[in-house]
Every structure is written in C-alpha cells, then in structure tokens.
Write a structure and sequence with these properties.
Shape: globular
Number of strands: 8
Oligomer: single chain
Radius of gyration: 17 Å
Low-confidence stretches: none
Number of helices: 9
Length: 251
C-alpha cells in the first residue's frame, strides 16, 4: 500500500491502534506517519485512566460551555429507533455551532502535515480520529474536484468513527440521507456490535461508496480488541483490502 497517515487525537488512540499498525509494519505491508491534535483536553476523573498519561489532545475546539465527552456519555444512554442518520440528527440536532468553530483551522493544520510529510496513500483513524480523517477526505476531494482532480488518497481505514463534520451549511454532520455517498475512495470500517456509539459508525459507513466499502465486526465495544487472534485476523483482512486497493489504483 505505501505510506499512511494515522490521525489520532491522543496517545490513548494511538495505543489502541498500535497492535494493528505494528503487525502491518512487520512485513512492510504499509508504513505509518502519526499526527495528533493540538487542543488539550482534561478527561473526567472516573475514566481518566483509559486515556493514559497527559497531555490529552484533540483536533478541534468545542464552543465554550460544551463538554465534548458529555456528548459521548449522553449518546451511550440515548434510546432511538430508525436509521443511523435519524439517530445522529435526533441526538445532535442541526446546530453545528459546538463543532464548527475550529474545523477549518483543524483542516489547515492537516494540509500542512500532508505538505511537509506526505504524500500519503491512505488515512487511518480511530474514534475522533476517524471522524477527522473522513472530514479531511471530503474537504480534500471538494478542493481537488474544483481543479478537475480526484482524491489525494487511495483508501481509508476507520476504527469506530462517526461521519464527517460539515464545514458549511447548518448541519453538524454530513449524513447519507442528505448528501449521499460522498466518500468515493475504498474504505474499510472496523466496528463492534456492542459499541454504544454504533449508530455513528454506521452513519459513517453509509456516506462511503457502497461498492467499495468493507466492514469487519469484532463483536465487542468501542475499544479495538488487542488479543493476538483478533489482531492477526484483522491485519490479514486489512492486507487483502490494501492489496485490492493497490491493484485498482494501478489499473
């Protein structure tokens, strides 16, 4: 596959993906460049141990008075019926203010990383990092299509992510029942059937090209399993995905 940019909001997220990344690097299936956010966050004391040692960094700011982790905790207990898109819209509403203020600056930071450390053949992200990666994919394609070009990237791998953030308009997220399949490159989605944030994962899957999007369900929660069997199985599936992507790109 080549060179992949790993989009991680914090050391915690990097540690969650490390077994998979190390396995893929072990036989030179891919190389990875790690990039992180710049916004420092203090996690709640009751779950602080999950996040490892500080600093705890994320990619974008929320409006004053909005606690981002309280949003996630609220969704954990949120009951809903209907589609993933309806669930996201019902939970977050149409007010993009909590998420919109700093997204443009975040994207500009990522473009600088690409200019200085790239080019990259793909993106990989876990949780918030997957949302940031999908937002970058959509914005990159929009910018390049204006010049008659395609995406800068060959593929993307998402671990337990949410759909892209909207950079204009009134909505918070880009959802498939409004914008269709706007991520057109091949994507691979690692989800857990017991993830309390599964509606967000499925909403991300639904904005991707249905002909080339693939999914791996490890059957657990939001955390990426680190046991040897799952890591080996998932890594082998990812190798096959990247090989197919390479062949398509070379045609």
């Amino acid at each position: 596959m080549g060179h992949i940019m790993e989009v991680c909001p914090a050391l915690y997220a990097l540690l969650r993906t490390r077994p998979i990344v190390s396995e893929l690097e072990s036989d030179k299936s891919a190389t990875f460049y790690f990039t992180e956010g710049i916004i420092e966050e203090n996690p709640p004391e009751d779950i602080a141990l999950w996040f490892g040692l500080p600093p705890h960094l994320r990619f974008f700011k929320y409006e004053a008075g909005v606690e981002p982790l309280s949003i996630l905790n609220g969704l954990r207990d949120f009951e809903h019926d209907g589609s993933p898109e309806e669930a996201m819209r019902e939970f977050l509403g149409d007010d993009s203010a909590p998420l919109r203020q700093d997204v443009r600056r975040m994207l500009d930071d990522l473009y600088r990383v690409i200019e200085e450390q790239g080019p990259f053949d793909g993106l990989i992200g876990y949780s918030e990092g997957a949302t940031v990666a999908s937002t970058l994919l959509v914005d990159d394609l929009r910018r390049r299509q204006a010049k008659g070009l395609g995406s800068s990237f060959q593929c993307a791998i998402f671990f337990a992510g949410w759909p892209p953030l909207a950079t204009e308009g009134e909505n918070t997220l880009l959802l498939s029942d409004e914008v269709g399949e706007i991520i057109t490159i091949p994507t691979f989605h690692v989800i857990g059937a017991a993830d309390p944030y599964l509606p967000g994962c499925m909403a991300l899957y639904n904005v991707c090209d249905s002909d080339t999007a693939e999914m791996f369900d490890h059957g657990k929660g939001h955390m990426i399993p680190r046991d040897v069997i799952t890591v080996k199985e998932l890594s082998n599936v990812l190798r096959s995905f990247m090989e197919r992507t390479d062949k398509v790109h070379q045609m």
